[in-house]
Amino acid sequence: MALIEVNVPDIGDFDEVAVIELLVKVGDTVKAEQSLITVESDKASMEIPSSTAGVIKELRVKLGDKVKQGSVVLVVEAAESPSVTPSPLAKAAPVASGPVEIHVPDIGDFKDVSVIEVMVKLGDSIKLEQSLITVESDKAAMEIPSSAAGVLKELKVKVGDKVNIGDLLAILESTVSTTRPVDVVPTPVAAVSAVTATVAATGAVNAVSAPAHAPGGAALGLPHASPSVRKFARELGVPLDEIKGNGPKGRITQDDVQAFTKAVMSGAAQTKAQAAKAPAASGGDGAALGLIPWPKVDFAKFGPIERKEMGRIKKISGANLLRNAIMIPAVTNHDDADITDLEAFRVSTNKENEKSGIKVTMLAFLIKACVAALKKYPEFNSSLDGDALVYKNYWHIGFAADTPNGLMVPVIRDCDKKGVLQISKEMGELAKKARDGKLGPAEMTGATFTISSLGGIGGKYFTPIINAPEVAILGVCKSTMEPVWDGKQFVPRLMLPLSLTWDHRVIDGAAAARFNAFLGQILSDFRRVLL
Ligand code: CAO
Question: 296 exposed, middle or buried (CB, 10 Å; 0-12, 13-18, 19+)?
């Protein structure tokens, strides 16, 4: 077995380039043409391949070292001798005048390279040698410059196209005064094997993955990463330009891509695309939903205005309400319950308990009545989880509370195990905490069903929005005395308007009507709760 020194091959006009990545370590078995290190100039990065197969015995370079053609990269114990195939030379670009066609110049041994970026648009005034597109193979990225100056009239490629030497890229409307032959000296591309990363000399093909910190790179907004990292990110669908590079000179490494991916998967981070889709309290501009833009009106044109930012709670609840309103196929059933006897009982109970300081509320009775209905119709106490329904064997009831900061939903736990007095007491305490802005997260989570009561305020019916991942919500309005036909005559009864909104993916209309009817029966004769 021979010990063979692997050298930096001919890398074109690059004189001294920095080692920015070590892709192998001592003891690794490498194949011929496997990438060993990544080097970078201010214009280009490229991977240097091994000229032979074998086991790495010694690394002769470290991060930050400057190397040039002939520098020893490492020593390999190899069975075969190195084989370096010289690549073809770059050709001179054509001279052009008037309408001029821009073709892909000689880009070395690359075939069918993908266009990953189009850097110009129709109508742009293009300077001589200005980069037009970026192409990328699995090993290298490079910008293709214009061989003439002029106004861009036609673009013949788009992102995703594959191009080869000689392909027509664009047509410029050029003038003789701004057009001259591209100053291309037939320069050898990196003299490595056919599948290896190569970079043509400056003037034929410009920089590879221009560094973000370099003026050109920054202006173009190109992320600073090696071709293999770009490929890795593309395979994962990770937006490279959103990743902060922690490598040398802010370079994005494979570890950075992995860390970003993990953060997104765990919910700790969001891509810009995800953030754009997340509904803002105002609903954003609706573009993520394919809607026409939100109307922009200069209200001040029509009269005096005052602009105030919405509070934090309003923003959070707004975003949640919007998601729930959009995502849930919700239907609302309206009904009336006769609470004449229940209200009389409530008033007398409160008189009896005056000294206890606990006021029994209609809402507390409603909570108990709902628990009975939820037990009879368990799908109302469930949640959707993918294609499965999760039935909960606990009955934690949320109630909407109107607070100076906005809508909050405190949760009373285990309402099945508590009496109306206890529920009334807890509701009073939680409502006060909500109004004082002192509710903890544990007091606002875990509800299986929610009641929104506007009974103390007024109104007849409304359509409450389901508090996901719950599947139903009961809206209650102000009870009123109404003439009700008892079969023989109209009698005055205290009627409570109920509005039940339900998720049609989980609940059918008939079940909703039965739920409301059952609730009405209980409220009209509360002894049924005991059954
Ligand atoms: N019909 C007629 N009167 C009713 C009633 C009803 N359905 N519900 C309550 N009332 C009466 C009460 O008996 C009380 O009268 P008295 O003072 O004479 O005893 C009065 O209205 C006020 O009740 P309340 O609002 O203090 O108590 P509550 O138990 O009904 O409600 C709470 C408590 C926290 C739910 C309520 O204060 C609240 O915030 N409601 C608003 C909820 C809301 O905003 N929902 C909309 C959400 S969607 O945007």
Answer: exposed
Pocket test residue of 335, 363, 426, 474 for ligand 1, highest count of atoms within 8 A of CB: 363
Look over the chain and give the mean of its residue pLDDT values, rounded to a whole number.
82
For the CA of 452, the nearest atom of ligand 1: 45
What is residue 136's three-state secondary structure? strand
**CA distance readout (Å), 189 to 18, 46, 165, 181:** 19, 12, 14, 20
CB 66 within 8 A of CB 17: yes
Report CA(454)–ligand 1 centroid distance (Å): 6
Q: Which residues are catalytic?
A: 504
Question: Is 405 buried (19+), middle (13-18) or exposed (0-12) by CB count in 10 A?
Answer: middle
Question: Which residues fall within 8 angstroms of residue 308, CB to CB, at 6 or more apart?
Answer: none
* 366 close to ligand 1 (CB < 6 Angstrom): no
Give 411 or 294, the one with higher predicted confidence.
Answer: 411
- Of 48, 81, 75, nearest to 59 by C-alpha is 75
For the cut 60, the answer to whether the pLDDT of residue 139 exceeds it is yes
Smallest CA separation from ligand 1 atom 6, residue = 455
CA-to-CA dists, residue 516 to 102, 172, 397, 462, angstroms: 73, 72, 17, 15
Distance (angstroms) between ligand 1 centre and the Cα of 453 equals: 6
Could you write out the DSSP letters of every residue in 259-285?
HHHHHHHTTS---HHHHHHSPPTT-TT
Residue 431 alpha carbon, nearest atom of ligand 1: 34
Burial class (CB in 10 A: 0-12, 13-18, 19+), 177: exposed
pLDDT value of position 43:
63
Task: Find out whether 487 and 308 touch, Cβ atoms under 8 Å.
Answer: no
Residue nearest to atom 30 of ligand 1 (CA): 456
| Residue 270 CB coordination number (10 Å) | 14
379 Cα–ligand 1 center, Å:
27
Beta strand pairing call for 330-338 and 388-391: unpaired
pLDDT per position as a tens digit, 107-130: 766 788 888 888 888 989 888 878
Candidates 347, 361, 408, 477: which one to mutate for ligand 1, based on the most atoms within 8 Å of Cβ? Answer: 361
Determine the average pLDDT of the residues in 289-318: 91
Phi, psi values for residue 168, rounded to 5°: -75, 125
- Please give the Cα distance from 325 to 335 (Å, whole number): 22
Helices (H), 333-489: 340-352, 362-376, 420-435
Kindly report, residue by residue over 358-409, the tens digit of the pLDDT. 899 999 999 999 999 999 999 999 999 999 999 999 999 999 999 998 899 9
pLDDT tens-digit readout, 322-372 = 999 999 999 999 999 999 999 999 999 999 988 888 899 999 999 999 999
Q: In the 8-state DSSP scheme, what is residue 42? A: S
